[in-house]
Design goal:
Length: 382
Amino acid sequence: MTSMSDIFTAAYGRTPDGVWSAPGRVNLIGEHTDYNNGYVLPFAIDYRTRVAVARREDRELHLRSTFTDGEVVASLDSLDPASMDGWSAYVLGVAWAAADAGVSLEGAFGLDIVIDSQVPVGAGLSSSAALECAAGVAFNELWDWGLTPLALARLGRVAENSAVGAPTGLLDQAASMLGQEDHVVFLDCLTEDAKPVPLHLREEGLGILVMNSNVNHDHATGGYGDRFRSCEVGAGALGVDSLREIGVDDLDRAATVLDAETLRRVRHVVTENERVLATVETLRKDGPRALGDLLNASQVSMRDDFEITVREIDLACDAAVAAGAIGARMTGGGLGGSAIALVPLSEAEAIAEAVRAVLAEHGLREPTIFPVVPSQGARRDV
Ligand code: GLA
């Protein structure tokens, strides 16, 4: 593999000042709860986005990547989210978000940046957050911002919301910044309190398979925004600021106030929050082998109540469980993207094979199935 330093030198004809990286993520459980001030339980995966960076004498940001030709150039004196688009918006958006949050960019020097990523794009594994967080840790150090990992995660979210235009929550960036080996990040999106919870996968002989449906998703448009608005409407009709304030006991009352579709959306969020808390409790008391029912119940809730799964994902999850997975569920924003299966390592290959066979039987696109390992969050590599 060509090193990031070599890639940088090939692009700019000099050596970089450093290389930083941040991972994609998988959400173990807690879907569409983040922007409802609820709970999430993601982990950072062993697929990373890297940025190699060197200071410039002027105030320009030059961006190149290994996945497309050409160079994007922006001035630190005129960063404007309205004019950002494509992959460079994830990087420029973070610089803009910092300035917008009151970090002074006045004395900042320009940068030459080159990006390389192993995180598959459009798979629901947060390639965008990986890029925002890799840029965030690099900027934080080079421009001496002194921000905490959580503060950098927030900037990534603002970049995503403002520069990219997707109304997403803090899940992806928190996982990418705060992930630890063999741990999930238990994040309360209301208080933004984040705690690592041990997974003990390896010692239990377990692993996680990603099953990428290869059905593309796009959060800036379409169903994600619709779900976001349904939750807002539901909370408004129930007289609360966010669905975090609603418990399972309130669902009977909700049924008298909400239309059938909004009720289903609200029920997913409310029950999903409960499942995240139960997952944390179960991990602590009984370990990951006991998570099957919770993962499967989450999948059913996303399929029937939130209606964000596609047929490929439903079939893949059912096939994985039928073939011996402990549990399986869609992960991420949905409407395509990926599912995960918690599997005994000794059966991982057979389960993957069974899933491929079922999708082929239905004449559906072949999924890409691969293991992921809970890994360390954003960091300086070189
Ligand atoms: C996407 C968003 C996250 C979160 C998930 C659903 O990944 O970026 O903020 O809302 O969908 O849980």
